[in-house]
Design brief:
mainly beta, three-stranded antiparallel β-sheet, 7 strands
């Protein structure tokens, strides 16, 4: 679960990572794409729920739940 001191990062190897700015801890959460993540956005629903949207050079858009499970994938090349 993310908190206010966490920064969500999309990396050039296709991973979603979390940087805790208070503790200085960098954690790779999941291998999300086969190529660079070029955009990442967090949508917050309330204090307990959010989703993460990633866009990658692998021509896919993915939506992730708060447990970092992919719940939707759109292939832009179809």
């Amino acid at each position: 679960m993310l908190n206010q001191s966490d920064v969500c990062i999309g990396t050039d190897n296709g991973s979603i990572s979390i940087l805790n700015t208070k503790k200085g801890i960098f954690t790779v959460v999941t291998k999300a794409h086969e190529s660079d993540i070029i955009s990442i956005t967090i949508n917050t629903f309330d204090q307990n729920g959010f989703e993460i949207l990633t866009v990658s050079k692998d021509d896919k858009i993915k939506v992730w739940n708060e447990k970092f499970n992919c719940k939707l994938m759109i292939n832009l090349m179809d």
